[in-house]
Amino acid sequence: MRALCWVAAGEVGVREVPDPELRNERDVIVRVRRSATCGGDLPLLAGPHPLLRAGDVLGAEFLGEVVEVGPEVRRHRTGDRVVVGAGVACGGCWYCRQGLHSCCDNAHADLPSADPDWVRSDAGCFGRPRAAGGFAGGHAEYVRVPYADVSAFRVPESVDDDRAVFAADAAPTGWLAAELGAVRPGDVVAIWGAGAVGQLTARAAVLRGAARVLVVDRHEERLRMAERHAAAEPLDYRRTDVAAELRDRSGGRGPDVCVVAVGTPPARSLVDRFAGPHADRPDALREAVHACRKGGVVVVLGGTDGFVDAFPLGAVTERRLTLRGAGRPDLRDVPMLLDRMARDELRTEHLATHRLPLAQGPEGYALFRDRADGCVRAVFTP
């Protein structure tokens, strides 16, 4: 079958790879209908990666049709249209029973190879290197889905593919951010980053009753999209004193909840981690900490460096802030989000700004990486 694979440092290409096969009784095989680019892919393409191998299949977010079912699968049958959660979880360990699927103890294919600096113990993920599970991703014609009763979800007939594919990761991540921030009716919420996750965090905050939601970014087309589709107030940090605006729009206190949804490519050496080309990226986190009201909550979402220099810990303690983080969402919210999509409360198809055949995967990733031509997400069809 054809798949979009890691080829070499900073390069992806469409290659022929072996068809997936059932490996255990709880697997299904899915024929992919849609797969979407993800911000978590970009660090893998930024340069040499010690855990990636040529031929590794990328793609964390995908949707498709079940074509083969393991004998112990109970919830799915051949022909079902399903969206698959980006994270892999067993459903039976202590963490999964608490609804913390992203911390699953049993769905990590190669935990010993995890980066010791991160002390990673989270579950596996599709389309990631072996330190994050080693499961072949969804930028392919077919995918093996382990623990399918836990991680695959039947899509309502009224929800089309371009909407439903975002229930794999971006929409659950946005909802989790609002949940971790304990967003309540009347809250003021500020979000740094107007990509897909930032916009869906804004929409989740609105659905939970936030009085004002502000999104900080510099890309005008993304800010307009957040305003139109998520009822958010846009703030272009190139033209605005963000801290002053946030105080002014929150009664002088600062937002109740601040969410950092900008991501950061991982540094490739200790020097890079503290002083390299990405060292300025944690500015959004520092700004969020200083902007948040006393006693408020700061939420940091995925893709962030293992090390951040000059972190304002004093501001966290003196202002009694709660700091929460999540690298990947859990699976428990996916059915609820699909129901909201079916009721038209949650619309996500506008985030698929570029629809391309899988054969044009490298071009799609170049658009996504460079945010060229207004690209928010590129969605591929095999």
Automatic annotation (TrEMBL):
Alphabetized UniProt keyword annotations: Metal-binding, Zinc
Domain Alcohol dehydrogenase-like C-terminal: start-end pairs: 196-267
MF (Gene Ontology): metal ion binding
Keyword Metal-binding: yes
Cofactor(s) needed by this chain: Zn(2+)
UniProt-listed Pfam families: ADH_N, ADH_zinc_N
Residues annotated as domain Alcohol dehydrogenase-like N-terminal: 25-150
Cross-referenced PANTHER family: DEHYDROGENASE, ZINC-CONTAINING, PUTATIVE (AFU_ORTHOLOGUE AFUA_2G02810)-RELATED, ZINC-TYPE ALCOHOL DEHYDROGENASE-LIKE
This protein's name: Threonine dehydrogenase-like Zn-dependent dehydrogenase
Species of origin: Micromonospora violae
